[in-house]
Amino acid sequence: MASIAGTEDVSRLIAQYFELVDLRNLTIPSSSVLKNPVTQNRIYNEMFNGDLLTPVIPPAAYRLRLLKKLIAVIENDDLWDPEEDEIIEPLMAAMTDLMSQPLQEDSSISSLDTEEPQLSFVSYTVPQAGSQGRKQITTYESRGLIYGSGSTGFRTWEAALHLGTYLSSVSSGGSSPVSVRGKRVVELGAGTGFLSLLCQKFLDAERVLMTDGNAKLVDVFNGPCLERNGFVKGKDAIAGRQWLWGEPLSADGTEEKFDIAFGADLTYDKATIPLLVDAISRLFSSHGVKQFVIAATIRNEDTFGAFLDACQDRHFVMEKSSFESPAFENQTGFFHSTQVPIWTYIEHFETVHAGNCDQDTVDKQLAMQNQPIAVDEETNKRLLRKVDWRLMPVMCFTYALQYYDKALLSQAAIFGLRKDLNLENGLRLSWVSIIFYFGYVLGCYPLSWAAQKFTVRKVCSITCLFWSIIILCTPACTSYAGILVNRFMLGVLESGVSPAFMLCVGVWYKHSEQVLRSSIWYSCSGGSLIISPIINYGLGHITGGKLHPWQYMYLIAGSVTFIWAILLWWILPSSPQDARGFTNEERILLLERVRGNNAGSENHNIKGRHLKEALLSYQFWCTFALSVLTTTPGGAISTYGSIIFEGMGFSTFESLLLNLPIGGFAIVCILSSGYLGRRLPNARLHLVTAGSLVVIIGSCMIWKLPASQRAARIIGYYLINFFSFAWVQCIAMGTSNVAGHTKKATMAAGTFVGFALGNIIGPLTFSANDAPRYNAGFETLVISFSICAVLAQVFRFAMQRQNSRRDQKYGEPSVEHGLEDLTDKENKSFRYHV
């Protein structure tokens, strides 16, 4: 008699045979088991007796190769005796019959150019059937991979078998949050309908709807599949229906209710993920589904990660199941490879209750909104005015304070700070200026990501509070080392404001509105330059007492900043979702205003995939390079402005007053650049080039003109401030030429890291040893802005070409996915602004 182990091997072989498992992976019993006539009779009757098995018998080519393999195992045994170990006649007759037939190409190896797949019945054995006998589900499929139609649905894939094993284990007594017993079930992208058949035939589901976008698959399911499994179409509680994601489930608009939905291997194509997530959202919102269970073979982790991100953006609550299929050699049915990991996730959507409008409420409401809401022009203007009044004054004053505190060094230097702290030799003053930007570089990314994670309001108010303390501590510095540490920490803390403001503008304003709003808050650096000399001119005349004038300057600045930081916590709105002073309806309309940006709304999840995409994009590095080049004069002017005027022969107070026009000039440059950026479509990089040319002219005037032409050299110095005309366009590009909240945060931080590096490079080219003309510094400015002018045009050409390619390939952009957290690369409706 065959051993128990041998009997189990034969049972596994029979089950694998009807599942058309690859011959190389079949469980072949030992020769001693196969030589037994009882075993051979069982193999014949259960595997090769066509009279008993038709029409479920596997393809002839598959049967012949397996039979040859079994006979070879017997005959290759060293102990095989042809007379005593005779192979039974029915098996030999079966092989003779198969060899005499003209075998057609096996459906398991269909060619890629076959228009129609060669279909055959495949029977899957339910695992752990035990003494109840073999339970089988029969599908009508082919083991070919991809056909001329592009469909992969005529095959049951590993993830479906894995999910079937999971559901079967639950049914047989396993513990799980998922059970279909007595429930109404819908399967998405069902293909062969394997899971639907399992749920209805053996797992006691009340009602099962199999759906797929391929009409041929649905017809096959409703015809031979249902018939072979003992169902009658129209009479039993199982049916197939074509469903194209993005359209209603029912053509007549009825909203049939279900309890649970399934899907397996639905995420192989990244382009279909938005439609899949929309379909899941429809099931949750319109069809009563409480759970969606998905299994995916992780051939590309980034692709499945994109699906999980999109689900998270829709506020689906996701739980990864710990279930793992047994290793192939331990499987008793639904045989599949476990070499590539298969993940199972269980998802549900948390209902939003009216009256409980927290930060996520509006996001959730819009996530369930399949169609955009129209916002009329009058409403749009009213909302824009309200947003401007809530945001712009707060952002402007905050940025003015930040710039005032940072640039105070230039004016404090001429009122005793250089002498008191021994900064008069070599590059010491330059290093005190630029070490601020080293701190800025260090803090920029962490604080930018913190603004994404914890909201703009919290990060700005807390960093403002701490930098005010640093400013208040500055008068206590008594040495070169002390002021270096003080300035470095100031740079770390101030670095969070500008990237956070870029994020804020990106989620509140349309693309067409962003450049002007960015220029408005950034122009306050110029306002600070106007006010600062007037205030410090008065403070500089303080005499007597224990403190020097420069120390009073820092104490006053720090006190004002400290008070403002406390107010900022209450008055700065972070995003439309959580802003005070807006109704729920207005919050929804505020998000609808920016849907057309195709850049997503606020999202607090930092996504490594989006971060990687940002750092590998040419848009990031071009914007970064332009930021470095356009801000090179910034640090030099803020540090050496008054000193350069002193070098022209002006007194300390005259030098201070000559700085007054610079602030006004900066305001004009920034606001005019913002205005032109809005009024002239796709002219942003032309404006960068134009501003660069003006800076080149100004630098040449102060560099090359003789000392006797002081007026012309002063004009040249003022023209250098046109760098802000170019730089403000870089800020706008950092918000409007990128999508996805993590990617926007990365771009915003990168833009201001470039700003910091430019401000580091600038002062280093101005050395006290080159006074009073500082020729090396102005020569550097000419070179930098020459490169900038050319790079802007190259960058513009590259983005224009990419827009043209998208127009040709995808047509006119839509706003369907405008509020989803997709990057500009993932959302094919995104267009770059040049």
From TrEMBL:
Pfam families: Methyltransf_16 (PF10294), MFS_1 (PF07690)
Domain Major facilitator superfamily (MFS) profile span(s) in chain numbering: 391-804
Gene3D superfamilies according to UniProt: MFS general substrate transporter like domains, Vaccinia Virus protein VP39
InterPro entries with a match to the protein in the record: Methyltransf_16, MFS, MFS_dom, MFS_trans_sf, SAM-dependent_MTases_sf
Signal peptide (UniProt feature, chain positions): none
Transmembrane segments: 429-447, 459-482, 488-508, 520-540, 552-572, 615-636, 656-676, 685-705, 711-733, 745-766, 778-799
Keywords of this entry: Membrane, Transmembrane, Transmembrane helix, Transport
Gene Ontology CC terms, in alphabetical order: membrane
Compartments, as annotated in UniProt: Membrane
MF terms in GO: S-adenosylmethionine-dependent methyltransferase activity; transmembrane transporter activity
Membrane topology according to the record: Multi-pass membrane protein
Record-given protein name: Major facilitator superfamily (MFS) profile domain-containing protein
UniProt lineage: Eukaryota, Fungi, Dikarya, Ascomycota, Pezizomycotina
